[in-house]
Design brief:
- The chain has 105 residues and is mainly alpha-helical.
- The chain is 50% helix and 11% strand.
- It has a two-stranded parallel sheet. Strands 2-3 form a two-stranded parallel ribbon.
- It is globular, with a radius of gyration of 16 Å.
- The two termini are 18 Å apart.
Length: 105
């Protein structure tokens, strides 16, 4: 686990359109009204086709926030992180973790 070295920094996250987790579908009624859930079903496919960088899952937001608290993103942009940046950093982190688990790094 990485240590912060006693430093306190700020990270500003600017997510785009985020949606409830498919892994925890029972949480959706607590996160979105029925009207917004219908809008999710209609808008998500269109947005993913025409503006994929604008969508982010709550898992990706959570992972980004956790790693930001650990100081992982220092020197990698910011302090304001747009949706596409957050997705790319989390994706790169996931790829690095997959490579480590396969002994490639």
């Amino acid at each position: 686990m990485e240590e912060s070295g006693g430093r306190l920094g700020a990270t500003i996250m600017r997510p785009g359109y985020f949606f409830p987790s498919k892994a925890y579908h029972k949480d959706a009624p607590n996160q979105r009204s029925s009207t917004l859930r219908v809008a999710d079903m209609i808008l998500a496919p269109a947005l993913s086709a025409f503006y994929p960088a604008g969508l982010i899952s709550v898992e990706e937001i959570g992972r980004f926030a956790l790693e930001a608290a650990r100081g992982k993103w220092e020197g990698k942009g910011g302090p304001i992180f747009e949706n596409a940046e957050m997705k790319n950093l989390v994706k790169d982190l996931s790829l690095s973790m997959a490579n480590l688990s396969h002994g490639e790094l």
